[in-house]
Amino acid sequence: MTLVIAINDLREKHREFLTGFWTLLISVSLSFIAGIYLGSVNEVLLLIPGLMVLVTPSINMRGAIAGILTSRLSSSMHLGAFEVDFKRNSELGDNLCASLILTVIISAVLAIFGKIICLFTDTEVIGVLEMIIISVISGTLAGMLVTVVGVLVSIVCYRKFWDLDMVGAPAVTTIGDIVTLPFIVVTALIVMDLPFTGKAVLGAIVFVMIVAAFISFKRGTRTMLDVLREGLPLLIPLSLLGITAGVLYTSRLESLIAAAAVIILISPFMNGCGSIGGILTSRIGTEMHMGMIDPVLFPQKTVLKHFGENYIYSIIFLPLMGVIAHFAAVLLGITTPGLLLMVVISLLAGILVVTAMNLLGYYTAVITYRKGFDPDNFGVPVVTSSIDLIGATCLLAVMMILL
Asked: Which of 201, 228, 349, 378 has the alpha carbon at shortest distance from 288?
């Protein structure tokens, strides 16, 4: 009897860690679908100039926007304010509308910024009209699907009494990885094959979508305006990080294709590190709201424990990513640096990224909370956006050193 009680106590003590573990395992496993797909369409990335510039930030923004949604809903659950109600002026309904508005506006911004940065860096790229059409249409379709998944996960966690902080960010970033890339590639192939008249019609539709999003912004409820006023000024500059990462990948595209297993690794690597960082920021945001931790310069014991758990996750999952990416490349018949090198690349680059994510996630929450903002609106977007540039830099640097 005493042993059973001890086992139950131990299980309860590590319940959150195990919830995160199983969520990350499922998340990383599913994200290989996107990684394998990316490896299989490398010829399309070469044929449509600059398309890779949109891939990284688009995937990131899907997860960032849905991450804001699930993080806010998680805090409302912990504070007892959550209800399954989609009406206007409800917590769920208003946050859902704000997410869709953010998706349309940010998709347009990604295309415009992407075109400008490509011109400044002398990176070959398609026309701005094609960029905007591809980004907004693929982004909106993927964003709607990811948002629906985020809402469903939130409702399930609410009804099952699960901690949404441990599930929300990994779930939406994984779905973002899986659905965004195919939407971008298929939309790009369709758009680039259309005559000018077809592109003009799609351009008009996209213009109406953008105008409708801005009108909805102006007429939003208080909750919607809170999300949009804090989200847009944050996500717009953060999108530059993802675009810069896309330019980095584009500049090294031939080297990546020569070691195509690394292309397969990109999606699960970013997803896994982003999910680990997302879990951290969601938990810290909730714990600050509940007064469990203080926004102080030096992390408290509870925060250090969260850091430690993130390193445990990393040591478990990063080598696994390298192994799967290697054997996936072998099965697809594409090039791989070898099993050992893939494991080392994933582990070394990942430890660097997770260290940066720990510090960035914590201090983002501290600064925003001290400034009177809601850390739920900042934590996940900052981490998932920053991971694009930090992850790309670390992954490419380690790859160039070792290969």
From this structure: 378
**Residue among 169, 176, 172, 178 at smallest CA distance from 310:** 169
pTM greater than 0.70 (yes/no):
yes
Q: Which helix (H) or strand (E) holds 373?
A: none
- CA 119 to CA 172: how far, in whole Å? 32
Owner of token pair 């909106």 = 140
Q: How far apart are CA 316 and CA 105, in angstroms?
A: 38
Q: What is the pLDDT of residue 6?
A: 39
- Integer Cα distance of 315 and 318 in angstroms: 6
Which whole-number Å values give the CA distances from 303 to 112, 119, 276, 361, in the listed order? 39, 43, 14, 11
CA distance 126 to 135: 12
Cα 385 to Cα 245, 273, 357: the distances in Å are 10, 12, 11
User: Across residues 31-54, what is the average pLDDT?
Assistant: 78
**Which parts of 193-260 fold into alpha helices (H)?**
196-218, 222-251, 253-258
At residue 4, the pLDDT reads 39
Buried b (16+ CB within 10 A) or exposed e, 355-367: bbbbebbbebbbe
Question: CA 259 to CA 166: how far, in whole Å?
Answer: 34
| Per-position b or e across 340-350, b if 16+ CB within 10 A of its CB | ebbbbbbbbbb
- Say if residues 365 and 281 touch (Cβ distance below 8 Å): yes
Q: Are 376 and 82 in contact (CB under 8 A)?
A: no
- For the residues 332-337, what does the mean pLDDT come to? 87
CA–centroid distance for 193 within its chain: 30
Q: Which of 346, 352, 178, 362 is nearest to 277 (CA)?
A: 362
Q: Contact at 8 Å (CB) between 115 and 108?
A: no
Quick: pLDDT tens for 110-166: 999 988 888 888 888 888 899 999 999 999 998 888 888 878 887 887 777 777 766
Extents of the domains making up the chain: 16-402
CA distance 36 to 12: 37
Q: Quote the CA–CA distance of 48 and 184 in Å, as a whole number.
A: 11
Q: Are 386 and 60 in contact (CB under 8 A)?
A: no
